[in-house]
Amino acid sequence: MAARTAPDDLVRLHDLTLGYRRHPAVHHLSGAFRAGSLTAVVGPNGAGKSTLLKAIAGTLRPLSGRVVLTGAQRRDIAFLPQQAEIDRSFPIDVLDTVLLGHWRRVGLFGAVTRRQIEQAGEALAAVGLPGFERRPIGALSAGQFQRVLFARLLVQDARLILLDEPFTAIDARTTADLLDVVRRWHGEERTVVAVLHDIEQVRAHFPDTLLLAREAIAWDRTDDSLTAANLKRARAMAEAWDESATPCRRSTP
Ligand SMILES: Nc1ncnc2c1ncn2[C@@H]1O[C@H](COP(=O)(O)OP(=O)(O)OP(=O)(O)O)[C@@H](O)[C@H]1O
Fold first, then answer.
1. Ligand 1, atom 24: nearest CA belongs to which residue?
2. What's the whole-model pTM score?
3. Domain-located, residue 215
């Protein structure tokens, strides 16, 4: 797919190939997330969606190609990994979890200000958990814990917000409340990229969609990306994947 670049791009992907131990998971992806856009990343299991988010967040080095942040820096990125990747046995309470959103400003051993504690309380109220400050995170339901992680994102105040399956295994009420938070971010012209599986939810709430099946099937306005033909093509590509594929030799997208 040809690279689309514009002056208001916040993140540009240049012929990006990603993988693990040199096995490619995402091939030759080019394109851009515009500043202030709200984009769903959709595709079959194993399509490379989480891998792409990790590369944008800077936690996975590309095998080839580049992720270029234009007008933003790594510290402007907030990343919500899948719940399965977060250890909730760690003995920490809700307030301290939310305050971790301040760490880039505070540093690991810096003192948290009274104002920052107030902001954490405001963020908890905004996600429907007022008064939960002293609960241990291990005592929360999955939905409550996701609300806490969204409160942390609110405190982080990031320009680019990456969400990996934020509503998977989350109840409908919590999903609706957290979608309101996503809408609020969009209204504030933050750039949001969310990996999602619920196509109807994407059609209803996400203006742009990248349909990924190891390579981009489509990256456009959601209705243009999620056509029956494109979804069929993504499924067909998933069925043809070879998990033991060797490094990709193609040099141009
Ligand atoms: N840490 C890892 N080590 C080795 N291979 C990995 C690792 N993480 C992912 N992969 C592989 O990379 C490919 C893409 O995985 P990824 O998790 O990015 O897909 P996904 O689209 O997010 O899938 P899902 O919808 O199931 O979460 C898969 O073949 C997967 O097995």
1. 45
2. 0.92
3. yes
